Amino acid sequence: MNDAAELRSAVAHLPAGRPRHYLKVTMTQSASAIPILEVRGLRKYYGKVKAVDGIDFSVREGSCFGILGPNGAGKTTAIEVIETIHEPDSGQILYRGEPVSRSFKENIGIQFQDTSLQEFLTVRETLELFSKLYPEPRPIDQIVEACSLEEFIDRDNRRLSGGQRQRMLLGIALVNDPDLLFLDEPTTGLDPHARRNFWRLVEGIKAKGKTVILTTHYMDEAEYLCDDIIVMDHGHIIESGRPRELLLKHFGGALIRVPEAAVSGVSAFSCPPEGEGGFLTFDCEDANATLRELVAAGVDLKGVSVERRNLDDLFLKLTGSGLD
Amino acid sequence: MKKFWAVFVARNLEFFRDRSTFIFNLVFPIVLIFGFAWAFPGGGGTTFKIGTFGSPPAAGSSADLPFLHYKYLQFVPYPSLDVPLERLAHHQIDMLLDFTKGQYYVNDSSSNGYVLERMLSAPPAPSVFAKMTVSGAPIRYVDWLVPGVIGINILMGSLSGVGFVIVRYRRNGVLKRFKATPLRAFEFVSAQVLSRFFIVAFISVFVFAGTDVFLHFRMAGSWALLALVNLLAILCMIALGLVLSSRIKSEEVAGGVMNLITWPMMLLSGVFFSLEGTPQAMQIASRAFPITYYIEASRAIMLDGAGLAQVAGDLGFLAVAALVFLGAAAALFKWE
Questions:
Q1: CA angle A146-A152-A157, nearest 5°?
Q2: Which backbone phi and psi does A211 adopt, to 5 degrees?
Q3: pLDDT the model gives residue A32
Q4: Of A160, A184, B41, B185, which is least surrounded by CB within 10 A?
């Protein structure tokens, strides 16, 4: 008996009335060998504009998958095609190894970049409206707790702060207890405190074994939340992998910045620095060797800083332009 | 059904909690009715209206009458006598000339009829028409007007409440959010239709009942038949709103298209003034508008006590138009 068959048998023998979300978590954990989502050769053109031009990737179950790129890179179009909001021109989208079907919408949760809701409804009424659109919704109280909506649950949904609104929209995306959650730039426009709160909510969702696909402009957000990323530009994937591995692959070492005054009189380094703004910057493969050279040359390390490269630097290197 | 009901309830809550829209929808038609009742306590115009039956004498012939060429007299030909006699009894026309028998009819309680009678028999060429009289209480202009105002309310409420709202939902992303759920387009659209159906019916009943308390409208026919006419008209107008909203993405375009439709309907459907005696082209154009059939049927039921047989044609037109519009909307509708 294979894993799936064992699981089906176990499910069949569970006592009646077992909460559904318990079953779902159990099943997803056992079926983790198959990517929860695979995208093959996906294309979406708008006239001559190749918004998405043949992208392939797969998403591991239980991971947070980041789609990064500047405005117009095609990331929102890509995920909206995957969400079945738009028809692709070509390509395949597989959910748990099968082409997406009508029931796909029952298994996913979506938080759009821009969403308007029906007005004059409270947060609770809005959640109830959406929960009734699904065959097996999650209890509203669980969503309220998971997204910290208690303090404004009976407030008109037009009278929420930016952070509260994003939490409510996340709650709407969770009403069907989805296995796969799409978050399209969920923290754009939020203050740092609200962003951190939102990250904690996403971490909580990940901790329950859910899979998250996240598009973002914020590189710190991607580094904090994402297990895997792809970088898109002009409709193509220009790099993919785990954030730390990509940074190691492209940058190897670290940036060492030294005040020019501190190295006066030292003429040669094995890794030549570049000077700007009163500082010398060493961009070397072996940061340890550079630091040893600085110590050996008697440089005062008080003013020295060692900076790790980030995804913004990676994008600059890959495309020659910064993230918008 | 659960999904349909959820969207239906949400839309109703949205409407009834939007106080400004809600109050405007209620107050505007009421103000219109009271305003016209105050401005036109009797008839709706100052022109004398004379019905005619049969061919008038040729101009300049020995039988011709100066009366037939006076200014400010409007002659409305009728193919038979029964309709204009009914109109005369209710003061909707001021006199009826029967050229076939050389008779004229006036209502013995109509002041306009009295004046016209004096004019008809005045020198230099007093008519030789024989006098006939009919009697009957006048129908006030407001009695005649109220079906038109309710009709306008149905028209505007349906087109804006469904057409405009769906376009707004499409533009601001509400439709896109619903599209991301298992909700089907049919479920969404039918919930919108039923919600607006309920709202417009509620407002129509409220406006009619609220003004009837003070103005005591004439109701000669069947309430059930009047309700049926209203419900069919609401369905027809909502379906028309759905057709308009099926593809339009901009509220500005939607507003322009709705003006393009509603203004000709208001002006050419006999809402405020009777189309009798208007140019032939205008009367033909009015037959293209569903609201014309609603107003005709409602007036026939309320003022003349018409039964199902008399308004069957109007009901049929409204039903067929509703089906055609619903079919077109189903074929054309797009979430985005």
A1: 105
A2: -100, 135
A3: 53
A4: B41
pLDDT-derived band at A31, boundaries 50, 70, 90: very low
d(CA B251, CA B105) in angstroms, rounded, equals 54
Distance CA B296, CA B313 (A): 10
CATH architecture entry for A37-248: 3-Layer(aba) Sandwich (3.40)
CA of A103: which chain B residue's CA is closest? B182
* Nearest Cα to Cα of residue A59 among A77, A43, A72, A78: A78
Interface test with A, best of B20, B176, B335 (most A CBs within 10 A): B176
Among A114, A124, A129, A155, the residue to mutate for chain B (most B Cβ within 10 A): A129
**Residue B198 near residue B15, CB atoms below 8 Å:** no
A133/B178 CB distance under 8 A = yes
B175 & B298 share domain:
yes
> Which pair of tokens denotes residue B325?
């519009």
ipTM above 0.95, yes or no: no
Residues β-bridged to residue B96: B51, B105
End-to-end CA distance of chain A: 52
Q: What is the largest CA-CA distance in chain A?
A: 80
> B108 is in which domain, residue-wise?
48-134
Find, in chain B, the residue whose alpha carbon is nearest to that of A134: B182
Question: Collapsing DSSP states into helix, strand and coil, what is residue B290?
Answer: helix
Question: Residue B163: helix, strand or coil by DSSP?
Answer: helix
The DSSP output letter for A266 is -
- How many structural domains is chain B composed of? 2
B23 touches chain A (CB under 8 A): no
- What topology is assigned to A253-308 in CATH? Alpha-Beta Plaits (3.30.70)
Alpha-carbon span B242 to B172, nearest angstrom: 18
Residue that wins the pLDDT comparison between A27 and A312: A312
Q: Which residue has the tokens 């959406």?
A: A130
- Using a CB-CB cut-off of 8 Å, the residues of chain A touching B11 are 118
Q: Which residues in chain A touch residue B180, judged by CB atoms under 8 angstroms apart?
A: 83, 85, 105, 110, 112
Q: Write the pLDDT tens digit of every residue in A46-64.
A: 988 999 999 999 999 999 9
Interface of A with B in 182-201 (CB under 8 A): none
